[in-house]
Hints:
Elements lengths: L1 H26 L20 H30 L7 H21 L1 H11 L13
Amino acid sequence: MGFWWFMLMCDLLIPVILIIAGRMMWKHCPGSINLAYGYRTKRSMKSMETWKFAHDYCGKLWWKLGLILLIPSVLIHIPFYGSSDDIIGRVGVCISTIQLIVLIASIIPVEIALRKTFSKDSVRKDGCKF
């Protein structure tokens, strides 16, 4: 039973981190473009405007994804309460893998939004609002 609780807590780490980090990125964008922390891609670091846009967009996305991932992560674990450690471990690894894929894939919509909103010179395109 103890291993089930341990795996549940491990599988809740990514959704909770997404919720907290997303809220921080969304509400408290780093004040300057830096190489230490923040949403750092070539496109997001071109100007302060792209930097702020990327943090706002990614922060909102991560916050939503964290909330969405939290519920199934708990619900999937419930039927396996009392199962063998081997089964619980495999379920936990599958959940964590899916969560990591979602986390990494979240880069794609942010980069698409940056490309649609800004030109190659980091100038906001006409008519684009966020």
